[in-house]
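Annex B. Sample input.
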Amino acid sequence: MRLACGCFIVPKEVLDRFAKDKKLPEASRKSFADTSDREAIWRKLRAAHNVATKASIATMGMSRAMADAPKVTVYDCAHTTSLPGAPVANPGGSADATAKRTFDVTTDVAKFYKGAFGRNSIDNAGMTLLSNIHYSNLYNNAFWDGSQMTYGDGDGQIFIDFTQSNDVVAHELTHGVTQFTLGLNYTNEAGGLNESMSDAFGSMFRQWQGGQDVSAADWLIGGGIMGPDALARGFTCLRDMAKPGDAHCLAPQPFHYRDYRPGMDPHESSGIPNYAFYTAAMTLGGKSWEKLGKVWYAALTGLPSPNMRFRTFARRTRRAARRLYPADPAVYAAVNAGWTAVGIP
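Annex B, continued. Sample output.
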């Protein structure tokens, strides 16, 4: 069975780097090592869910009956590794700031997908959105395992509570959307697209929640989870869709196709489609989730293609731009400019 998406926000290379960083306290180094060690477990679980999802879609067909708006639930792991944790009663009114924030932001992500794209939850059929908080001890990641979201509290030095960044929450939920649409594998170009879908829609959600147009957006991924040590070292984010290779990124990325190599970590190769989306958004202007977001969503929700390449996805977006906005050539021109900028004509 091919391993599918591990669906973490922090790449393994970053975890392994800080696990060996002697400038960090021993407890922080251990937390990074422990987080890295658990990655293989969640990748296997996620792969199993991905296979089950593909079988379900094949059986049911692509049309799915609409249900009520999704229920949002929050579970507290209380620093254990049991999933799910204990249910949090009335999370929207919880005295635990992490529980309340998780409930509020997850609810808003569901509203974003419904309002902007007409999508009813991850599966477009009202699937309950289950989130786990306070996972493990000083856990330095957030992930989608194929059926639920899980957030660590961070080590307090490099990372803080992973629910502090609204784009991180949207990023993880979007991995679920991708699972139920393109079904992208987590290798080569498909893996890069998988991560890029989550970054693009995560950034769009952040802009939507803030009422920002593209020129006001910061285009940072994970800016809200940087701890004091990371900030002191000059790191302001995990990734930057506007400046993927800059030194302020904890995990810098290439942003031109000439720099792509087979076997790249998906968190690295995703810089290429990320920059294409950013360039298209800045070229078109306005609010990213309106016209351009609908183009990307149309390409994402087309026929499943687990091993899709960048060029194929680019072709889908170009076609979608013309199909959705035949009277507005600026949309196609912006999409084309985005992909041309990264070397995918």
